[in-house]
Input
Amino acid sequence: MGDHGEAVVKKAIEALRGAENEQLERLREFLRIPSVSTYAEHRGDVEAAASWLARQLEALNAEEVRLVPTGGAPVVVGHLPPPVPGAPTVLVYGHYDVQPVEPLKEWRSEPFAPEIKGENLYARGASDMKGQIMAVLNALEALTAGGGGMPVGVRFLFEGEEEIGSRHLADFMKKHPDLLAADICLNPDAGMLGPEQPAITYALRGLAYFELRVRGPAHDLHSGAYGGAVHNPAQALCELIACMHDESGRVTLPGFYERVRALSAEERRDLARLTESDRKILETAGVRKLWGEPDYSVLERIGARPTLEVNGLLSGFTGEGSKTVLPAVAMAKISTRLVADQRPEEVREQLEAFIREHLPDTVSWELEQFAAGPPVLCPTDSPGIRALSGAMETVWGRRPLFRRSGGSVPVGAYLQQFAGVDSVLTGFALPDDNMHAPNEKLHLPTWRKGSEALVYFFHALAAGQAEEK
Amino acid sequence: MGDHGEAVVKKAIEALRGAENEQLERLREFLRIPSVSTYAEHRGDVEAAASWLARQLEALNAEEVRLVPTGGAPVVVGHLPPPVPGAPTVLVYGHYDVQPVEPLKEWRSEPFAPEIKGENLYARGASDMKGQIMAVLNALEALTAGGGGMPVGVRFLFEGEEEIGSRHLADFMKKHPDLLAADICLNPDAGMLGPEQPAITYALRGLAYFELRVRGPAHDLHSGAYGGAVHNPAQALCELIACMHDESGRVTLPGFYERVRALSAEERRDLARLTESDRKILETAGVRKLWGEPDYSVLERIGARPTLEVNGLLSGFTGEGSKTVLPAVAMAKISTRLVADQRPEEVREQLEAFIREHLPDTVSWELEQFAAGPPVLCPTDSPGIRALSGAMETVWGRRPLFRRSGGSVPVGAYLQQFAGVDSVLTGFALPDDNMHAPNEKLHLPTWRKGSEALVYFFHALAAGQAEEK
Output
């Protein structure tokens, strides 16, 4: 970076620090919108969050800001043209929808009334990912406010269905390739390893999410009058689910591991540098002991190995006390997390074949699918990742670690598939932020450092590209 | 029965038939009280049902009618003294509480707004067992109204916690032996085999009902961030439940069958006479195929074999759509039906030992018990059963069949244990009455015949005892 560049960045950082109160107020406003995409009753709130975001883009002087309708929640788009011909364009991705808040009684504050306690801001979506979106907008605002102007072109793409599997995103991308044209995608939906250890994520797991309903009798029966002579669908469901893993924790669906890419010795060595966090995983999960495939490290199990999870169970009587029913139906929410090169559509077939083979004809069943997103695996030596790595080192004083994330962000796979755009996956969420759980929070000092790092990133990206040319 | 006896019974039957409208109106009044013992919010309704019953006993000129407090719902008592010294005393047992109504949306009429359609009266508790209690009171009223007076002494014992395992009944009996003094107990909480086939039940299964909670992480986790490295308690619960039966449907708790009395060849032959109802069981259950221990007939599986059922399952996210949680806790309601000579307290120990052996230390667990009632097996040649058998033959024109019931009525075991009183188990519920399910109903013609049979029964019991003396 030349002297001029350094001065420009310095002023942008000053502008960023000078606007902290406004940034925080703006984030709180965003967090007050209960944009839960899972429930139809929140449809209006989801739309309100989209409109709110569009107004933020207009405030940044973005052009052609609009809400693009889909079969579900709209996609918010807009763009800032490249400052000079040949400057790179960054596609900024985010999702403005949030997870449901249940179980509500476990929250210590109202999920949609953001509350600061110590260094943390508590609210649903604070960390996943309204806070992350606002970190990017903070940085872009500061670049302008600092007087140096925008060093790169920016495209915005904010969806409202990420928490329900990005159902309409692939269709949207197929219809609007013009809105995806970019050199790189910045996706801040991943997180840090700790407040002092930034990270860049180069792999995300795919997701295929199902609801399985096993049906027995036509209606709930008296367990005394029929128990022992009618197959209990709750028992049948448990017996089926019990077969889905072997004793070592491996998933038993035939063919499930066939396309899984083996880890190279080099990658395993790199990932092994991260295992200091085993203890942290124990702590934040609140378990006494970890679990899983014995031949893989904990971080490999989470990031590089596919899994099958029971996300929910419901059958029969679940109120207080006792009711002696033999239930008519038993339901399980079952999801699989996939790694390169597994395909969600094949996993559905494997699951169906497994159920057909294992469920006896004393019960019937139906399988509904709610999400199908492929896994992502990105090159770690792209200009975007080099720029981000340097920016993070500047702010935290240490190089980011490269890692695989266990989470699923279908957009990454879609962008590779439909627009040939690789993603830089990062973000400033911490492992103890309670994402998808009660008392979700955002660590404000880390969030502010994150905004600074993004100021450096946008500059470094422009400078890096200029050097290469 | 002498001529005088015949005339007396004839007048009582006439009085019974003449009061049909009042009987029906009274039953509807009883059914309008939502006395669901399972839920604390219905506590007032349960008390109201007790008071309502006490008023009915007073109308019969019963003496010392009162509500005896227990740790839970009160026991309604009262008595009609023997008409002559040495006349037998019948203890009439009933429960005035009812099952919960969920799932409410499957009811075609309001559960507590009794509605007649065709020959049936629809309401929660119509068949189990407010209708049965009222059949006895109808008969007793007619005996007085007919002018012949009461042929036997009667004690009433109506509890309000049968549907939640008769929690306080054993304590009540230990405290009040004077209220149990009787020659025989008439318990009409069992049922018929069909509208034309009366039955007398000589065995009831015991019940031990549990809630098992398996705990994993301290709170719900993001299944992407932790899946594969933290043991999922829903999966652990399913794996545990799956071990509780072997492939033939036998319960695998060690020692579970140790005390089970084997069926004699004679009893198996008698029970085999009842197997015509296999098809009916299929129909009323609404299943394509029956299930269970292959070495036993369907009626043996239900009546003479112990079972273990999953009555409810709850874990994680169970709303519409998807939420990618790794649940903190998974709950199962599990109950065992027991046969002579199993002991509920031993079964609890067997279950606990089983859980300890099979659940890994990646999760923790707790077991709560809601009911513990021993099984009942009564002699089939007592004066009471002879009297009832004759009464039924008079009304239906065919001898009742003797059978074992799969249901559980702890009172029978307690009466044997604490007062040495055997029970006559009968009743006028039909197999398709939807007991414990939506759209519970009572078949009115059968109910009226039942009241008549009880008129004959009380007389025959007095006459039989007189003959023996």
